[in-house]
Fold this protein.
Amino acid sequence: MIVPLDHMLIVAAVIFCIGLTGVLARRNILLTLMSIEIMLNASGFAFIAAGTKWGHPDGQAMFIFILTMAAAEVAVGLALIFQIVHRFKTLDADAVSSMRG
Amino acid sequence: MAAVFYISSALAILATLMVITRSQIVHALLYMVLSLFSIAVAFFSIGAAFAAALEIIVYAGAIMVLFVFAIMTINPQGEKTGIGIATRLRAWGLPVVMSLIIFGEVLYVFVHATFGEAQPKFVTAKEVGITLFGQYAVAVELASILLLSGLVGAYHIGRRKKS
């Protein structure tokens, strides 16, 4: 093992926590979506680290599924953001704070 | 090879830190692309070449390009409406503290766990393909249904209604 498994998992955890901070602290909706992508990428990193540790291709297969889900989620999320910008004319998450009726 | 992993993962962490702290969205996007490329290099260095290529092609090449197109279409005014980082410094205290607590717990678990040793093995694309279409064939079909539903959903949600 050229790199110990806990080093790889620690790198994945650091990137995940950075993405978590981005989701909680940023008010811009696009940056929140990007931070969610960071978190998904970090969890995929953990899967690949576990897969290469045992020499199985299952880690990369799981990474492909995570990638698929992230792509579908980004498409739907960006469509929702388009509608929000069309109605509220801003990317501020605090502006979308009321429901009609 | 281990030096390549450490250097690229340090670059990925630095680039990800720059992503969440930029006030202009385009800067954050470009740093995100850099972070994805660094993670792909880290994947290459530990023997997961297929995943690294997929990360570059799909994540940095399709998802980030989707973000770029969205930002070009939305044309945001980040500074005027005050969504930048400098105006919201007070908002960073609690998220940073919570993330550090979570990271501390994860660090404790990883350091105190006993991982066995394994032989370094380069996992090829052929093995991943055999696994995907042999063992996880149902999951591949479900992923394709998910992509179809994402496509239809994105089209329906993003449609401008004339009425």
About this structure: Chain B touches chain A through 86 residues (CB under 8 Å). Helices of chain B lie at 2-20, 25-45, 49-74, 93-112, 125-134, 137-157. The radius of gyration of chain B is 20 Å.
